[in-house]
Queue: 2 jobs
Job 1
Amino acid sequence: MTPFRYEHAANRADAIIRVGQSGAQFIAGGTSQVDLMKEGVQQLTVLVDIARIGLDVITRLDGGGLGIGSNVKNAAAADHPTLRQRYPAITEAIQAGASQQIRNRASMAGNPLQRTRCPYLRDPAQPCNKRDPGSGCAAVIGFNRTQAIFGQTDRGPRDPATCIAVHPSDLAVALSAHDAVLVIESPSGERRIGFDELLRLPGDDPSRDTNLAYDDLITAIELPAFSGRSHYLKVRDRASYAYALVSCAVVLDMADDGHGDRIVAGRVALGSVAAKPWRVQEAEALLAGERPSAALFAEVAERMVAGARTYSMNGYKVPLSHALILRGLMETSGLEPLAGPSGTAFAASVGGMGGTAALEHVA
Amino acid sequence: MLDALREQIGLTGTKKGCDHGQCGACTVHVDGERMLSCLLLVEAVNGSEITTIEGIADADGELHPMQQAFIDHDALQCGYCTPGQIMSAIACVSEGHAESKIEIQEFMSGNLCRCGAYAQIIEAIAQVRNFDARTQTPSPD
């Protein structure tokens, strides 16, 4: 690790001033950042600790939404009764990610800001346009089993724009599907952006993971009022404590029109298939006004995976995405049962600690 | 924090496995909550109470019930992951995440054991929660 200075911010304004120093970055839980510094991927000279400036409570918003302070810990959010009851995809995604030790430390705003787990980012001996802009991309001719099937930039291994990495956050996928809003404070004041504007595809500059400026401080994540159903599904190489191969968040607004359930509006986000949660508006539009059915959901899944670009080892992500979208819609709409209690890891983990055992033994 | 504990303070009970937050061997309690010391900067938790495996037995040497349960169930082979397992297990119980076998499995997934003592580790934790992990029934008094 290169030497660095550690400063505690006294408040938001102080944090934003301090992060203006050369080589400075905010640090909250630090669970991802400290590791990247130890691996020599990030060489920071000043860390501005924002963990002691508050922003650590979950509050009800006017209009019925929920405001989650950026410093709320992942574990605390997962255990929050209102969040779990009204936005279950979010608590399912949190519990299906990392371990309790990490969830106890990691913050809600920090989680979506973690960097890709592409092995080439974390190996300074390999070219990586995210780590060393202009050095090229080793993944595109290397180990690509976990890499993107949508939204990549691939102009060959030596091109400075090439990047096929995926974003690893489970929480981000659920926040995207719930149309969360980020409250951001900066030297020019406070503004709000839709969650889908936070993370970016590589485009011509893979080194930029987000659309934030270095002195943009996320202060809260706001969830719009919601009384429908939501759910998260995650497939991984082992039953627990692994990054997703593919994941899927589904949010459905349902209403009974006297003849049964009808979908008012639906949103679907795929995880670990692109550099940001993957949404397809034309696919989501198919759900509006329809009755839930396997045929309708298969059509949505077809539309969502159309146009995938695969590599030698990650072709499996296309049928896996299709199956996960279908299952997510079936379970969220109630046509199929959840594998475990709503709002918990037991509902989210495909092939993990779920199934009837979960329903019987988890309170 | 892991290096500070081991190399500077001399508390070597906390183990360095992967040093990247993947194995759980370095688990400690920060103000009673389990965290990974390999991913913590000491200054970030300045003022907090840190508890390591050295701090959980009674002053008179009587083992913590979780330590005794690991012995009772032979819940280790090489023992390298054991301090992290025990620190994590104590917190797993106090959080209320050890109410069934599958809940223990899910909420202990951040602690890897290369010897594969998982079945016995689950039984040890269940013993502390007063149930039998194999039958899912309350332990006899």
Note: Chain A touches chain B at residues 6, 27, 30-31, 34-35, 38-39, 47, 49, 51, 75, 95, 98-102, 104-105, 239-241, 345-346, 349, 352-353, 357-358, 361-363 (CB under 8 Å).
Job 2
Amino acid sequence: MLRRFAISGLMLVLALPLMARTRPHYGGTLRVEIAGNPWQGPDGLARQLILDGLTALDAHGAVRPALAASWKSDDNGHRWQFRLRPGVQFQDGSPLTATAVVMSLNLACASNCPWTAVHAVGESVVFTADHPVPQLPTLLAGDAFLIALTRSADGQPPAALIGTGAFQFTSFNNNTLTLAANESCWQGRPFVDQIVITAYRAIRDQWLDLSLGRADVAEVPAEQLRQAQQQRLTVVRSAPVLLLALRLSDSGALSNSVLRAVIAHAVDRSALFNVIFQKQGEVTASLLPQSLTGYSFLFPADRDLNKANELRGGLSLPALTMAASGDGTMQLAAQRIALNLREAGIAVQPNSNPAHADLVLCRLPLQGADAAGVLANLLFSASQSAPAPGPDVQALFRTERNVLDASTIVPLLDLPRAYAVGDRVRDFALRADGTPDLAAASLEDAP
Amino acid sequence: MEIMRRMGLNCLIAALAGLLLRPCPAAAVPGPWDPPAANLAGQVADLLGPGQVRLTLRNLSSIPADQIPAIRKLLVQDLRARGITLAGAESANEVRITLSESARQRLWVAEVMEGSESRVAMVELSAAPVEAAKAPGTLLLRKQQVLVASEPVLAVLETSAALLALEPEQVVLYAHAADGWQEQQRATVDTQQVLARDPRGVLALDGNGGFEAWLPGAQCAGSIAAPAPPAEWTIQCRASDDPWPFVQPSAVGGAASIRAFYNASRNYFTGVLAPSIGADLPPFYSLIQLPRPLGAAAVLIGGVDGRVQLVENGVLRPVSGARDWGSEFAVLQSGCGSGAQVIVSASGDASSDSLGAYELSALEVVPASESLMIAGTVTALSTAPDGKSVLAVVRNAANDYEVDRVTAFCN
């Protein structure tokens, strides 16, 4: 027995030097496990696999054509025309038309859109806005504006999500979503035949499945990166692509900007960084990361309880409500912030509904290479707006400072995304938003 | 103006010190830190006006620490020239200068503190390019950009006066103009096939002065009537499942063309050749014909299983030393070493690829050059008709396609 092992081992060693790296193989099933909902943005993996946007961000965050082959702006950025890529089909075989795109965008954004109106003009989609929107191509690459078919050939809403992306919906049973390769994808057929996504799977179970060869891709939350490395998982992590921030209402109990400033000064980012997020990511008090602007250090991130108490003075403070959108770690972080605020004399009660909470702890996207575009996208995700900054870094800084001076967003940490990957997966890479680009991945042992 | 004045002062001081043994560098180019220092000092002066300040300087950038004193000196001189002099801790005004940077550029920031009021000035600087270290090898590979295209380029073919590029659904003719290759004509190919994520195609000379283009399920034949702009060509395309040509007739000593059957659904060649070369081949991604010392040609294949094998005299044998090889390779007749080398893409993951030259010695490939770094993924390699260069198609991070000519110099 031992001799057979020894001979097999020797043959393996002899065979290894002969092997070169090949082109990616086609075929096979990629097994992905996630803790959340595959449909829900901004982490909705299924949406990104099934749908495309008019534009997309490349690996470095630069805007690239996607369903729109080209675009131009007139009238000082008030009017944008996006010309559709010819010959693109939805996964049900129906053609991608400007009308279909407009219907999808109107459904995705009924109010507070970056544009005032969107129209189909021939093979183009035309956006008009009351104010200049220089970052519209970047905004349209976001998850919120992915294009889905809203009406099937029979005029009815489709039974499942249909787009133009690399994979199409097959089934969703017992928290298991199955997607099949879209053979007619305009970007080319993806390498794997099928992706099976197991949803709502605990991180510990994901890692166990990965180590037993029952899964190919598992999630690694930022706060568990060190643990994943200790377990010798193969981890792929992004640059900081998420801003952990506290969103403050500017009405009701928090209509007083001084009270909001008290909260901004009272939050202890270091505790969140050291304790909750296990020293992963970066402490920040700026909306945009230092790597994007170079001026992040101008916003002091240290807690200043004296300043908070000084500002609070004799203000009578009502009890506030706080919600945390996301997983258990976010709940823990929210509890920590509530403790911080209590030390500044502010009582906080939990609220499960972010729509009705005074404070919401959330993750905001930091995707893209153009700082102004990233800022516009971040503010849109936070349901806020600001005038488009000028082209230079000083104008960007002024815009950011004005937003932060209002204390309706309190930046806390810049966080990466990370995934653990099994041995059979090749060319696993992350997109600019840190989510996996599964259409580009292939399997080593594909038939 | 300020820089010139300072240089004049420096010269005067140097002359007075008796150091002016050679001509003063009055026309010398300012150092890299002079313009940003002058700019930032100007902005600070605009905010503060003449007076006394405390100055602090910190470096958060990749500028080496040994350059910081010189930068500080420049800033102090520039501030002084604008009426701002340094003071001690007793001054109510403070200027905090931070040498910072983002991933793209350097940024010098001045925080001007007047009492409790703080204002900010900034100067953007482009980051200095980093020179790649060069290491000697037996062969030195160089590349020169030929073309950049936003659409995927599957293959390129250079004729005596024109360049052809194959896109997933089009053949494009370029003619040489004063400012490089200019697009002249396009012909659409109706492939009727599923497009692969990494689509492939072949362009080859047909041996009769024309060219042929092959895409999954389609074939085109054409000839170039007038290569100079405005170039003219004839091209006809048809559906075809015929085998694809693999050796350009004039590339390797005028050897006869080998054709291989292509499996479009799996994006590889089945292993069936026409004509047969006397050995049963496994499915493969790449095939080249290599000149051998005794005049006979051998065939080198890169298999779907990752093995590189040599077919010589009808016998298929594995080649060792190819573990770092990618799937793309082409022959280069450099005249160095044995005269011909295999140019190979590396086995690294997508974002940063490289090319290397290898010599085939018996059944082992031996590196013949240092790696030539490529900013992107090499998606296709083909030998130029004269055999003396290789055309590499590279997909960069922005998903643009670049065609580079790779040549070798004997070291």
Note: Chain B touches chain A through 55 residues (CB under 8 Å).
